[in-house]
Fold this protein.
Amino acid sequence: MNPISSTVEYWLVRHPAIHNFRWEQGRTFASSPLFLAGAVLSYLSLTLLLSRLLPPPALRPHLLKPITALHNLALTLLSPLAMAVGCALSAASQMPDARWVFCFPADTRPAGPTFFWAYVFYLSKMLEFVDTLLIILSGSTQRLTFLHVYHHSTVLVMCYLWLQTAQSLFPVALVTNATVHVVMYSYYLLCAVGVRPRWKRLVTNGQIVQFVFSFAVSVVMLWYHFRGSDSGCSGIWGWCFNAVFNASLLALFVDFHLKNYAAAGKRKRT
């Protein structure tokens, strides 16, 4: 292994804080159900308050754009990109065989480097709440769709269940989701600095493909759960929540795609 690869692996996999990570409800920061409920309810309450009841004055573009650019840069480089690479390397180092990627043994405990990156991913979803605040401060509250608020609030619950139930298949979901978010936040970053890329549709298409892919790999996990062993796969109830959530998001994103892109295509043809 060359020095660069060895350094990357140390800081993303073998560092003691990562390698020895353990999720313990009530002891790990932000691990209690009360914290989760408080975070979701606070997000929903503040969103309603600031967007409908007591909207703050809009920030001027010369102040808002640098803040938005820094926020999107952080989410592009420090969150999704680092998490996708970190989780992929951690899973490769932690898995005993290829089956482990799809189906954790039933007695799996949420510990080790792969679960560390699930924890970072969980915390990063609270950082993404800032997206909503920036929309409100821009004065464009019409952009606060049901899809936006529903996604931001419910994805936090999903990530919590990944850890709490030691949910099988989450490494695949984390890597694919983080990769899609690299594309998404790169697009928003370019928009914030005054560049309007032509590949906006790619962001929505990538999210739709992600959800379809999640159902495809779930078939493998379910086969292992019901046919592969007597004990089944860890975190099956967490996966059930994940599956319902992904199905709802797929329906909402397809509806968004049809309304925004299919309708625009019809207008161009006419």
In short: The chain has eleven helices and no strands. The chain has one domain: 3-269. The radius of gyration is 20 Å. The mean pLDDT is 91.
